């Protein structure tokens, strides 16, 4: 019969590619890992690994055993999280989807709070756009998702998803400092015509909000540069290649770019989306941490 401890060691070797790396990940010695592998091979009655240069390659039997170990580990982790839920503890996996611009000011500080208060949580984060992340929230592949909503175009969310607002930013026009529209006074949106634009990819909330906002003011933006990251967009603006509408806060200190108020005023709100109903302890802890980050006040 396979021992769970030995299967766990094999899975670590498979994931890290060598005895040494697996030992470091498991906080044991390399000889201890090698010994566990040899015992597991005796139990299996066949070779599970083959040395290849400085690394390790799994045999077909080794791949089967390693995948079984991963499946067992996933089952144990899920069981621990469900039992902890009954006790009201925040433990186990926490899967987060986030906008690129929200990681630095919101997600990272919230994760620091969680690491201190809930050390048994195991958070993982993926960046992307709501159009990609919200479906994963519905299928329970993610537990919380940070989304954006413009004042001119609220976020498009499925019926069983709810959003708590976190922070609201002014949306401004980003141009090169020498641009004719650069200056302290608000620029009417209908005057921003005949420009090359940079924008997030079509289908994203940011792209659709920007394009629809301009169309309402009689301007059809010509998007030449499709870039999902605001800071990368600013490199194009600073080079005089494009203009764009962008939330002020994420790009405030970017050199070589002038941020001009627009009229009528626009805002973008970042919120945290979760499935409706009472939240399990892990996502509830993340929501609380995010609310604390934006308010600066400890939450119970």
From TrEMBL:
SUPFAM superfamilies: Periplasmic binding protein-like II (SSF53850), Winged helix' DNA-binding domain (SSF46785). Residues 2-59 form the HTH lysR-type domain. Pfam families: HTH_1, LysR_substrate. The keyword Transcription applies. The keyword DNA-binding applies. It comes from the Bacteria. InterPro entries: ArsR-like_HTH, LysR_HTH_N, LysR_subst-bd, WH-like_DNA-bd_sf, WH_DNA-bd_sf. Keywords: DNA-binding, Transcription, Transcription regulation. Belongs to the LysR transcriptional regulatory family. This is LysR family transcriptional regulator. It comes from Pseudonocardia zijingensis.
């Amino acid at each position: 019969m396979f021992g769970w401890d030995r299967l766990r060691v094999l899975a670590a070797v498979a994931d890290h590619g060598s005895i040494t790396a697996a030992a470091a990940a498991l906080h044991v010695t390399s000889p201890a890992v090698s010994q566990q592998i040899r015992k597991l091979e005796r139990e299996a009655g066949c070779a599970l690994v083959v040395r290849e240069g400085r690394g390790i390659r799994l045999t077909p039997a080794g791949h089967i055993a390693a995948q079984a170990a991963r499946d067992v580990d996933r089952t144990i982790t899920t069981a621990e999280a469900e039992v902890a839920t009954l006790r009201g503890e925040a433990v186990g996996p926490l899967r987060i989807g986030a906008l690129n611009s929200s990681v630095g000011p919101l997600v990272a500080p919230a994760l620091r709070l969680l690491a201190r208060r809930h050390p048994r949580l195991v958070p993982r984060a993926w960046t992307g756009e709501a159009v990609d992340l919200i479906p994963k929230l519905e299928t329970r592949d993610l537990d919380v998702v940070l989304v954006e909503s413009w004042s001119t175009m609220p976020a498009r969310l499925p019926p069983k998803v709810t959003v708590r607002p976190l922070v609201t930013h002014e949306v401004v026009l980003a141009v090169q400092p020498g641009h004719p529209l650069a200056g302290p006074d608000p620029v009417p949106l209908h005057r921003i015509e005949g420009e090359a634009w940079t924008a997030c990819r079509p289908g994203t909330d940011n792209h659709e909000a920007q394009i629809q906002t301009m169309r309402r003011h009689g301007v059809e933006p010509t998007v030449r540069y499709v870039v999902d990251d605001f800071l990368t967009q600013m490199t194009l603006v600073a080079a005089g290649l494009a203009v764009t509408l962008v939330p002020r806060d994420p790009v405030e200190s970017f050199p070589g770019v002038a941020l001009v108020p627009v009229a009528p005023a626009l805002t973008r709100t970042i919120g945290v989306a979760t499935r409706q109903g009472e939240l399990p302890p892990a996502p509830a802890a993340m929501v609380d941490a995010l609310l604390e980050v934006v308010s600066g006040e400890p939450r119970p």
